[in-house]
Amino acid sequence: MSGRVEFLQGNEACAEGAIAAGCRFFAGYPITPSTEIAERMSERLPEVGGVYVQMEDEIGSLAAVIGASWAGVKAMTATSGPGFSLMQEHMSFAAMTETPCVVVNVQRGGPSTGQPTKASQSDVMQARWGGHGDYEVVALAPSTVQEMYDLTVECFNWAERLRVPAVLLADEVVGHMRERVILREDVETVDRELPEEGEEVREPFPLEPDDLVPPMPVFGRGHRVHVTGLTHDERGYPATDDPEVHRRLVRRLCNKVRKRARRIHESVGYDLIERESDLALVAYGGCARTVLEAAEELNATVFRPRVIHPFDPDLVRRLLDGYEVLVVEMNLGQYVEMIERALDAECVHALEYPGGYPPTPERVIEEAERLQG
Amino acid sequence: MNWRDLIRWERMPHILCPGCGNGTILNVLVRALAEKFEAGELDPDRTVLVSGIGCSSRLPGYVRLDSLHTTHGRPLAFATGLKLANPDLEIIVLTGDGDAAAIGGNHLIHAARRNLDVTVICSNNLIYGMTGGQVSPTTPEGAKSTTTPYGNPEPPFDLCELVMGAGAPHVERWTTAHPQQLKRAIHRALERDGFSFIDVLSQCPTNYGRRNDLKSPREMLEWLRENTSTKDEPGKIRIGILRDEERKPFHERVHELIEEVSGDEEGG
After folding, report:
1. Cβ neighbours, 10 Å, residue B6
2. N or C: which terminus of chain A has fewer CB atoms within 10 Å of its end residue's CB?
3. Assigned CATH class of B3-267
4. Cβ pair A221:B11 closer than 8 A
5. Cα–Cα distance between B88 and A32 in angstroms, integer?
6. Nearest to A229 among B45, B69, B79 (CB)
């Protein structure tokens, strides 16, 4: 891994990751605890020829990002809970129009205004199902400042590959902590596939493209395409009354992500530390940091996914079948529901820990010991 | 270029009601664009239509150009991203009174304040047509709609005053009864650098006229002609060029700043 070593805040590392990934457009709205991303982008983007704009709200922010993406530029926004709620309208629009874009959610406590300066993981389900309609996104959860950098790059790459909104599902712990980070220079970046310039694209949304992702006919290159959030046929024209067109469209929007679940998990990676134990701890994001320490103390196996969505039940079964599983998360039980669907639900337990801080290793150990009787 | 080449004929018949003012707006818009393309003043491959939700926002889908049919009230926010990311694009935003002034009011005033270089054509038919005739922010006081069955208790917005107050440098108001003037207004708007706003008073016979003693499209057009004036006349709605000034557009300021900063970077 070659690059510049720095001591940065997670939010700053996220901004640097975005620039390394090729992001040249950022639209945002200030909100704690994500604001440092916007601040860093406003300073850094002009240096590399990119555009920063502060919009009038979070709704407009993601709209501008989607507009920039259709102008052919990699684009991102960053927010937290209440802002993420406002963005759901356009998460849904980005999914429907197959617009690559990255949305960073530095999670804080909710519902509503909740705990602006405290950590949370209570938007796990909102990341997937916050907008209306059937769609899938890619969502990645960083546990370190290094991963705030690396997984931001991964978000851009998966957004571009699959033409989906990708969510960096960070939290206040990793957003605000400072750590050593290597700003890698050798990052692999992916660019969306484009049709040939100057060619009119008569079927921009084929119902069954090869690999389920059609090339993106970005504007200003002579493709003459109509892009709409309405249910559309292969020509991109509204076809709202045809049940079969709708079924095929939403099935493809979901399948292009779902069918790649294993590939995404393998490519982005996960931590699995196997120990001689009947107990496996599961945690992600900022909360995983204390859980890793507790697992060592308990001599328990620990699984830390980086990919939250799409979920890969086969992977979880392969890794965790036969264990008593304790899922630790800073909410009242969200990721644990997916684990329960993959495993024998009776073997799955939760340490639900909202409140603003991850549980201490001692608290996790106490829960594990109680479980083991 | 002939305007006929700009229509997606395979999408006909369109969804608009007989007598709808949006037909006139589409007609005038494609003729103005065809003239601009013919004269070499605009490049069709770099001209983009952006719209929100509502009857008028369906128009881009009938035009053979790149077009983005977005969410309710937000076309100007999408256009902000498009224009800043690719300043070579010529962007025309098609919107309506509900889209622009109710749900999209915030984006409207901020796009005007920034002086985003777009041409906004607002089909102002005083009603929510697509959903069946509910009161809008421009419905006159006392008018009937499906949600003001006893008459509208609210005063309406003057959209031109609103965007001028927010800083829009080029603002005109016309009606669907003035197609030639409207075409010239679109020409001017496309020529101006910066935020151009054209408020087009338009008829919705289906959902406004028939509930407000204007039984036919013809009656509505006559009403528009008789009750508007290019001069300040008492009791009449002022139409014409309401403001025509120059102000540096947003994308130019942003890109000058980028050049300055990135140039300094290279130099330093």
Report:
1. 21
2. C
3. alpha beta
4. no
5. 35
6. B69
Using a 10 angstrom Cβ sphere, with 0-12 exposed, 13-18 middle and 19 or more buried, the burial of residue B209 is: buried
The pLDDT value recorded for residue B142 is: 98
Q: In what order do the strands lie in the sheet with B170-175?
A: A226-228, B66-69, B47-51, B90-96, B118-124, B196-201, B170-175, B240-244
Question: Structural domain of residue A229, as residue ranges?
Answer: 210-259
Count: domains in chain A: 3
Contacts of B80 in chain A (CB under 8 A): 27, 53, 55, 60, 63-64, 67
Residues from chain A that touch B11, judged by Cβ atoms under 8 A, are: 237
Query: What is the pLDDT confidence band of residue A209, given thresholds at 50, 70 and 90?
Result: confident
Q: Are A98 and A214 in contact (CB under 8 A)?
A: yes
* B252/B261 Cα distance (integer angstroms): 14
**Beta carbons of B68 and A227 less than 8 Å apart:** yes
- Residue A203: inside a domain, yes or no? no
User: What is the rounded distance in angstroms from the CA atom of residue B237 to the CA atom of residue B162?
Assistant: 15
ipTM, two decimals, is: 0.97
pLDDT tens-digit series, residues B14-29: 999 999 999 999 999 9
- Which chain A residues have a beta carbon less than 8 Å from that of B83? 67
Decide if B105 touches A, using CB distance below 8 A: no
Query: pLDDT per residue over B41-100, tens digit each?
Result: 999 999 999 999 999 999 999 999 999 999 999 999 999 999 999 999 999 999 999 999
Same domain, residue pair A117 and A159: yes
Q: Which residues of A touch B106 (CB under 8 A)?
A: 56-57, 60
pLDDT at residue B264, as a whole number:
65
Domain boundary among A259, A285, A319: A259
Residue spans of the domains in chain B: they are: 3-267
Do residue A46 and residue B79 have CB atoms under 8 angstroms apart?
no
Quickly state the pLDDT bin for B268 (edges 50, 70, 90): very low
Inter-chain touch A229–B70, beta carbons under 8 Å: yes
Residue A62 lies in a domain: yes
Q: How many CB atoms lie within 10 A of CB A369?
A: 11
What is the chain B residue with the closest CA to A226? B67
Question: Do B80 and A55 make contact, defined as CB atoms within 8 angstroms?
Answer: yes
User: Angle of helix A261-268 relative to helix A145-162, nearest 10 degrees?
Assistant: 150
Mean pLDDT rounded to a whole number for chain B: 97
8 Å CB contact of A49 and B86 = no
Identify the CATH number of the domain in which residue A38 sits.
Answer: 3.40.50.970
A232 phi, psi to nearest 5 deg: -130, 155
Domain-located, residue A198? no
A333 closest CA partner among A310, A312, A360, A353: A353
Please indicate if any CB of chain B lies within 8 Å of the CB of A192. Answer: no
